[in-house]
Amino acid sequence: MKYADRVDSFCGEATDAWDIHVTAAQRKSEGQDIILLSVGNTDFETPEPVVEAAYNSLLRGRTNYPTISGELDLRQVIAERHSRKTGLQVSPDQVLVTLGAQHALYNVAQCLLDPGCEAIVPEPMYLTYPATINAAGGDIVRVASRAENDFHPTVEDIASAITDKTRAIFFATPNNPTGAVYPRKLLEGIAELCCEHDLWLVSDEVYGDITYGYEHISPAILPGMDSRAVTISSLSKSHAMAGWRLGWAIVPMELAGHLGRLILCGTYGSPTFIQDAAIVALQENPDGLADMKPTYEDRRLRVCGFLDKLPGLSCKPPQGGMFAMLDVRGTGLSAQEYATRLLDDQGVATLPTTPFGPSATGFLRLNLGVEDVLLDDAIERIAAFNGTLNFFTAK
Ligand SMILES: Cc1ncc(COP(=O)(O)O)c(C=O)c1O
Question: What is the pTM of this model?
Answer without folding.
Answer: 0.96
